């Protein structure tokens, strides 16, 4: 057996043990995922894990290339069952993330979002330097503290972003429909882990698998985060070209 075949068999076994093959009830199925199914058992859709593995390899190569080229991938999951997992994976890959809630306009009105991120940075710096103590009364500091907490909750995960992300990695695009719509409007490609109730035509790089079981999400997200981290580790920034002023004769 070749190494490629062994690796493929290994990931299929891991996906099976993680429950990645379980879809939703047939009545919830979106027609675009039919071609990724193996069978339907007791009214529940079962995914073809060979096809899932092929999709995962494409997604891993896509996100690795993104890292290799210095592209930013924004990790997105606001579902209770997967938010913690996605946040940990994003931090492992040193990637921005949204896991609390998606604020409308985060991509479509990015200039306004940057103002809020800058405000958070300013308040954080002032607190660390002790400037808040010097500039404001106790009552004012209480109000500023509440503002800081709210900004941190909403924007801390994307506080390092300087421009629109180049890709979105989304868990359950049906649940994250606002993020998906904004990404489409901004022509940002989407990599998504998605179950049988999602529209695969809305995603450029789909990985059709269970997107609710923590074991399934953890396995898939870790594979993708590891690939992204590998790509970033090999990224070589282009040297800044310094133009010399013309010599006057």
Fold and architecture overview:
This protein has about 250 residues and is an alpha/beta fold. It folds into two domains: about 180 residues, Rossmann fold, CATH 3.40.50; about 50 residues. About 50% of the residues lie in helices and about 15% in strands. It has eight helices and eight strands, in the order H-E-E-E-H-E-H-E-H-H-H-E-H-E-E-H. Strands 5-4-6-7-8 form a five-stranded parallel sheet, sandwiched between helices. Helix 3 links the parallel strand 4 and strand 5. The radius of gyration is 22 Å and the shape is globular. It starts with a helix and ends in a 16-residue tail after the last helix. The mean pLDDT is about 90.
CATH fold assignment of the largest domain: Rossmann fold
Large-scale geometry: globular
The percent range for helix content is 40-55%
The residue-averaged pLDDT reads: 92
Main sheet summary:
5 strands, parallel
CATH class of the largest domain: Alpha Beta
Number of domains: 2
The CATH architecture of the largest domain comes to 3-Layer(aba) Sandwich
**Uncertain stretches of 5 or more adjacent residues:** none
Order of helices and strands: HEEEHEHEHHHEHEEH
Pairing-aware structural class of the strands and helices? alpha/beta
Q: Cα-atom Rg, whole angstroms?
A: 22 Å
Number of helices: 8
- Give the name of the CATH superfamily of the largest domain: Glucose-6-phosphate isomerase like protein, domain 1
Q: How far is the first residue's CA from the last residue's CA?
A: 72 Å
């Amino acid at each position: 057996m070749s190494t490629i075949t062994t690796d493929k068999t290994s990931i299929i076994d891991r996906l099976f043990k993680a429950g990645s093959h379980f879809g939703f009830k047939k009545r919830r199925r979106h027609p675009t995922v039919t071609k990724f199914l193996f069978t339907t058992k007791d009214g529940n859709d079962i995914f073809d894990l060979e096809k899932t593995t092929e999709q995962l390899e494409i997604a891993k190569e896509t996100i690795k290339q993104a890292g290799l080229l210095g592209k930013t991938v924004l990790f997105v999951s606001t579902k209770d069952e997967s938010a913690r997992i996605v946040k940990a994976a994003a931090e492992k890959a040193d990637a921005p993330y949204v896991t609390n809630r998606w604020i409308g306009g985060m991509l479509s009105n990015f200039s306004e979002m940057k103002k809020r991120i800058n405000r958070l940075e300013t308040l954080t710096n002032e607190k660390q330097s002790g400037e808040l103590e010097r500039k404001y009364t106790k009552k004012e500091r209480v109000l500023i503290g509440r503002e800081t907490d709210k900004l941190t909750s909403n924007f801390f995960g994307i506080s390092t972003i300087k421009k629109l992300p180049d890709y979105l990695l989304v868990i359950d695009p049906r649940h994250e429909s606002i993020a998906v719509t904004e990404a489409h409007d901004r022509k940002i490609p989407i990599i998504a882990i998605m179950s049988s109730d999602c529209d695969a035509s809305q995603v450029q790089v789909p990985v059709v698998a269970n997107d609710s079981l923590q074991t399934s999400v953890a396995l898939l997200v870790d594979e993708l985060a590891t690939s992204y981290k590998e790509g970033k580790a090999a990224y070589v920034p282009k040297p800044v070209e310094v133009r010399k002023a013309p010599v006057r004769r």
